[in-house]
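Lecture notes, continued. The same structure-token format from the folding unit now serves as the input rather than the output. Read the line below as a description of shape only.
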């Protein structure tokens, strides 16, 4: 059962984002990007107070995702990508992105904090960061 509202166009959009941001990290890495995206729609806190849809989340400005800003958000969604997006929309979560609202790809080690948010861990090339429960209780609710 979906944890956020969506349409089939939203599934394709999230799948494209997951592919653009983390295809090199495999299916699990792509799912973790999906976790962050779903969490941003769900959380209603910090930089994401007015994000209510997948489309708003994907194209958030300022903020948002590097893929949509730097020109590598052009690949179509494959069926396998859409299956992964549906899994994320249905609430499937994976550590360290379980409660994450941010990720990035550093050149070295993951900093302990990033924009005052706690590092929850690394998966392959990406570091993930989660808010405190006081700042964003909804992200911890599913």
């Amino acid at each position: 059962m979906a944890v956020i509202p969506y349409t089939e166009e939203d599934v394709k959009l999230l799948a494209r984002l997951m592919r653009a941001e983390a295809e090199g990290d495999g299916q699990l890495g792509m799912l973790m990007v999906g976790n962050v995206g779903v969490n941003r729609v769900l959380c209603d806190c910090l930089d994401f107070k007015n994000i209510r849809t997948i489309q708003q989340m994907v194209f958030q400005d300022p903020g948002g995702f590097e893929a949509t800003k730097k020109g590598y958000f052009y690949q179509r969604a494959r069926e396998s990508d859409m299956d992964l997006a549906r899994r994320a929309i249905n609430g499937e979560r994976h550590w360290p992105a379980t409660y994450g609202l941010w990720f990035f790809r550093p050149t070295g080690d993951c900093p302990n904090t990033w924009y005052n948010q706690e590092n929850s861990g690394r998966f392959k090339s990406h570091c993930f960061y989660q808010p405190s429960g006081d700042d964003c209780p909804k992200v911890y609710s599913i």
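Point for the exam: The first strand starts at residue 102 and ends at 104.
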